[in-house]
Specification:
By secondary structure, the chain is mainly alpha-helical. It has one domain. Helix content is 70%, strand content 0%. Helix 1 packs antiparallel against helix 2, helix 2 crosses helix 11 and helix 12 packs across helix 13. The radius of gyration is 20 Å and the shape is globular.
Length: 339
């Protein structure tokens, strides 16, 4: 495989690279993160949970931003954006049926489990329509980071309609959009591998010594006037950026070529793994199975194998292609064309 990062081939390469290599590695970490969150036990499992949570969704968000062009509003783009909202509504309702909760306005408007990312991605892609390419410079990206850092001071900002995470992770999405302008991947590729490994070890130790089970998840919720929450979020952001750089650099090694085909079903894995997490939780509790890091990794691989086999079922893939808004969108497009 040609790993050269010349200007035009770079986009083609990274399109395959992100969709196949890095996203596959990330979906592994996403599943492991949620397994650890549900059944993880012991200090190492808790530290690993905090470390993974510091980078996995920021890096996913960064990748989504990388593949989003500013000021794009063509029909194909808008249709795919509306499809995100459609998938969110369908599976959010399905999770309500499978795992019923107390019925109130807050719970109804709060995305179920990991589905918040689909709603936030919908918001970000709508926002990108109004972003001009010349705005994507270092100064303005830093301003977005400041916004994401200080949005925690907004009173009672929470998970309703995913507003909190949309604002917090916005900085990573915008960073992804701006990364092409600053040749970020060329610069990352110039880093020695030992530097990338050092970043991973350093951030793990950073999380180990700073965060414990008593520290709230840094990317969620209002600070409620607690300045320590601001510091924690800032450290998490720095840790997430360093770890993301490390994973991007390591994933450029050709050894990952053999898992390329497995990464093409990332959306499938992300959506459907939510049901398996609940099942694993029930099984582990029912049979009093271990929740240490090794066993959580085993559960993760079992879930991934099941998802891989299920991804071969055509009707499950068709569900992800169904768009609730197709008829409305087509009618609206015809009205626009007439005008």
């Amino acid at each position: 495989m040609d790993l050269s990062l010349s200007t035009m081939p770079a986009i083609s390469f990274f399109m395959r690279f992100f969709n196949n290599y890095l996203t596959f590695v990330l979906i592994l970490f996403v599943i492991l993160l949620h397994v650890l969150g549900r059944v993880g036990e012991g200090m190492i499992a808790k530290v690993s949970y905090n470390w993974i949570s510091s980078f996995v969704m920021p890096l996913f968000t960064f990748i989504s931003g990388y593949f989003t062009r500013p000021a794009r509003n063509d029909g194909k783009y808008l249709r795919s954006t509306m499809n995100l909202l459609s998938i969110f509504i369908l599976f959010d309702a399905l999770l309500w049926i499978v795992f019923p909760k107390s019925l109130n306005i807050v719970s109804l408007l709060t995305p179920q489990f990991a589905l918040w990312y689909l709603l936030s991605l919908f918001y970000w892609r709508i926002l990108s329509i109004f972003i001009r390419p010349e705005w994507l410079n270092l100064r303005k990206v830093l301003l977005v980071y400041i916004f994401s850092l200080f949005v925690g001071f907004v009173p009672k900002i929470g998970e309703v309609l995913s507003f909190n995470r949309t604002c917090v992770f916005l900085c990573f999405f915008v960073s992804g959009m701006a990364s092409r302008n600053i040749n970020a991947f060329r610069k990352i590729k110039s880093l020695p591998i030992w530097t990338a490994l050092f970043f991973l070890v350093l951030t793990y130790l950073l999380v180990f010594f700073i965060f414990d089970s008593s520290v709230p998840y840094a990317y969620v919720g209002s600070y409620n006037g607690d300045i320590h929450r601001l510091v924690h979020r800032g450290i998490f952001m720095i840790s997430g950026i360093m770890t993301g750089i490390g994973f991007i650099r390591i994933s450029q090694i050709q050894v990952f070529d053999k898992i390329a085909d497995l990464g093409s079903k990332t959306m499938f894995y992300y959506i459907y793994h939510t049901f398996f997490i609940a099942f694993i939780y029930i099984v582990v509790r029912a049979f009093n199975l271990s929740g240490n890091l090794f066993m959580c990794a085993v559960y993760t691989m079992v879930i991934l194998l099941c998802l891989y086999l299920l991804s071969r079922l055509r009707f499950l893939n068709k569900i992800l292609e169904y768009n609730l808004f197709s008829a409305v969108y087509d009618r609206f497009s015809k009205i626009i064309e007439r005008k």
